[in-house]
Amino acid sequence: MTFIPVGFYSVEYTIAIEQDSIDATDSSQEHVTFKDNIGAYEFNKEKYDRLIEHALKQDLSAYSNENVVESQIADKAEELADEFFDIETDGFDGMLVENVTKIIHHIAQNNEAPRFIDFSERNIYDMDKLATEYLNTTPLDTDIILRTKFNDGSLHWGFLYKTYSNFKSAFNKSIETALNKTHGQPIPPPVNTSLPNDDLTKEKKEQVRIRDNYTCLCCGKSRRQGVSMQVDHILPIAMGGTNDISNLQTLCVHCNRIKGTSEINYRVHKTPLSKRKAVLQTPDRSNSGTVETAVRRVVNLFYHCAAMCELKHSQQKRGRFYTTWEIVLYMGNDPNWLRDYSGELLHYVRSHLGQYQVSKIILRN
């Protein structure tokens, strides 16, 4: 139950996003409103309340403009996170500074505290209780039951664990605990919610950004495009990840938000998945950027790695790749996986990216 929120802070704020056009000399802005829920836990709810009470008394007007650079808010957020939280315990999921950033952004623009939503159904999601209930169920039946629960829209297992793999892994750990109790064996110590001794310092974050050339490893956007670059944990701290350089990667704020707590390593070019995903995620047009970065984000999110090598396309009517585009994947990524969603991908390119001239997309290695 340590990782089941006691409630959520509902934040809402508006930011201006650069919209790169086909003509590199022309660009425009679009104002997009973001809504998000920030989970609060038994061990940090009071700290969030103290932070919010403090922030309401401060002059945050410098952060109220839609064009404010997110890195500026992040600097303030890091300062407040150090003041009000214990980084080693409250930052167990690697999201603390980002959460504080969202709260500052909300208060700066709305001049009021974010609404707190009490998670009254919290006890339903006691994983140890669930494991005990199905301890004697066959593995096949258990898997069917768990998949049904995870995919049930009326339940929140999907929101809490993001992927079925995470959900099943947590269930298996609770099964081990239940078996140990049954056989009178010592119970393993609880999951450590603290960060490793090797803290994630500003210097280390900068080292990661330099290594990755200040470029989002998912979509390919660079800092010069005015996009905030964040340092992401490939394997989240809450799932056993560390602050080691090898577990860190640079992502733009949009790709990091979409990735969430999923384990995705965009530093590799070959998918770790054994079969194709059941859904093709097509992020909002407002976060798309250029045509190429938009397509790259969709493809790489689908394969859970930096699978896309190149997008061959042309904006010239007489160009070879004007109506027929080619997506070239690195070796080790099966094009047939994405071909099954070619209709959805084509619809995304035409309707969401405004490339109505495209009639066919070829996928190959």
Question: How many β-strand stretches?
Answer: 8
Shape by Cα distribution: globular
List unreliable stretches of 5+ residues.
20-26, 191-197
Q: Strands of the largest sheet, in order across it? A: 2-1-3
Q: Nearest-angstrom radius of gyration?
A: 22 Å
Structural class: alpha+beta
| N-to-C SSE string, H for helix and E for strand | EEHHHHEHHHHHEEHHEEHHE
Can you summarize the main beta sheet? 3 strands, antiparallel
Mean pLDDT: 84
* Number of H- or I-type helical stretches: 13
Residue share in helix: 25-40%
Proportion in β-strands: 15-25%
Measured between the Cα atoms of the first and last residue, the distance is 45 Å
Account of the 3D structure:
The structure is a single chain. The longest helix has 19 residues, at 164-182. The protein has helices at residues 45-56, 70-84, 87-90, 96-110, 127-133, 139-151, 157-161, 164-182, 202-211, 253-259, 291-303, 335-339, 342-352; strands spanning 7-20, 27-40, 115-118, 229-233, 248-252, 308-312, 324-329, 360-364. The N and C termini lie far apart (45 Å). It is globular, with a radius of gyration of 22 Å. Mean pLDDT is 84; it is low at 20-26 and 191-197. It has 13 helices and 8 strands. With 365 residues, the chain is α+β, with helices and mostly antiparallel strands. The strands form 3 sheets. Strands 2-1-3 form a 3-stranded antiparallel sheet.
